[in-house]
Write a structure and sequence with these properties.
Number of strands of chain A: 0
Strand content of chain B: under 5%
Order of helices and strands of chain A: HHHHHH
Distance between the termini of chain B: 59 Å
Structural class of chain B: mainly alpha
Oligomer: heterodimer
Shape of chain B: flat
Mean pLDDT of chain B: 92
Order of helices and strands of chain B: HHHH
Helix content of chain B: over 70%
Strand content of chain A: under 5%
Chain lengths: 215, 96
């Protein structure tokens, strides 16, 4: 199937300028996302500065092995996403673009499955903040604060992953129709930017939540 | 086509290998007894990893100047947010 050449809207000089504008718009959106997650990171940093001991103890209740595995899974999904974008850029066959996108979706789903398993375990242990919160260690109130931040930050990150999977499913459908190629790959690129951004958020969440107060 | 640089597959795989190695390193640092330095080292590693992802996976290395300005602006505002908040929280006991 012939790829569709993107229509150049009348307010752009040419397809290249339109592509640059789309990329810039995506980065502006990601800048707002930086501030969105930035507020949560700031709350974490402030409370950790106030209660370093309690945060260290609470952090030891998280499973480092699962956290490290998920970090590797997400980094691998970023590689497959980058290769999907590249396949679209060089005008590869739709099947090849679809294959990299499907690999990214599989890895993203694996990440969420592991996260779900971790959440279930925390529910079982009574570490979910609220009336049922049970914590044997010292500074239970401050530990509850840590777990509030843990669920809030990883939960919003997971929501971003779910949205990312939805975008990828849409890309797969469009790629199957042969829509992407040398002349039209902006949608793949912009979804890629979003996916990599979500990866970067996790790159900071992992040491801050899982690795504080080990050794 | 300035913003349409096509990077070689080898570069992506190299960046990927570096990211995995840095993940292993940060976990090793966490379990070594380095005291307060370990948090600083782990954050430095995280910043390095994020920079690698942004520069190569997100093509910032080959991007337009305007795009870099947006990224720089986002980071500047983030530093203001964290910096000014910490300027309050960390000085409360000092100032009584």
């Amino acid at each position: 199937m012939a790829e569709l050449a993107p229509a150049v809207a009348h307010h752009f000089d040419d397809a290249e300028q339109q592509h640059e504008a789309a990329t810039l718009g995506m980065w502006v959106f990601l800048a707002t996302e930086v501030m969105f997650f930035g507020g949560l990171f700031t709350a974490y940093v402030a409370y950790r500065a106030l209660y370093p001991g309690a945060f260290g103890h609470a952090s030891n209740h998280l499973d480092v092995r699962l956290g490290t595995t998920n970090t590797a899974v997400l980094i691998t999904s970023s590689l497959t996403m980058a290769l999907a974008v590249r396949a679209a850029q060089v005008g590869a066959a739709p099947a090849r673009i679809v294959r990299w996108l499907a690999a990214t979706m599989a890895l993203g789903s694996t990440f969420l499955a592991i996260k779900l398993f971790e959440y279930a375990h925390k529910f079982y242990e009574g570490l979910v903040p609220g009336p049922a919160f049970t914590y044997a260690g010292p500074d239970a109130r401050q530990a509850e604060l840590f777990f509030s931040l843990y669920f809030g930050m990883t939960g919003l990150h997971a929501l971003h992953m779910v949205i990312g999977l939805g975008l990828l499913a849409w890309l797969v459908r469009e790629a199957r129709r042969g829509r992407f190629g040398r002349a039209c790959h902006t949608p793949v690129e912009n979804c890629g930017l979003y996916w990599h951004f979500v990866d970067i958020v996790w790159i900071f969440l992992f040491p801050l939540l899982y690795l504080v107060g080990r050794h | 086509m300035g913003s349409e640089h096509i990077a070689p597959v080898r570069l992506y795989v190299t960046v990927f290998a570096c990211l995995l190695a840095l993940t292993a390193l940060t976990t090793a640092v966490a379990f070594a007894d380095l005291g307060r330095a370990s948090t600083v080292i782990m954050l430095a590693i995280a910043v390095t990893k994020a920079t690698l992802v942004a520069l190569f996976f997100m093509h910032l290395w080959w991007s337009e100047r305007l795009t870099r300005l947006v990224v720089g602006g986002a980071l500047a505002w983030l530093l203001l947010l964290v910096g000014l908040t910490l300027a309050d929280v960390l000085t409360r006991t000092v100032l009584g």
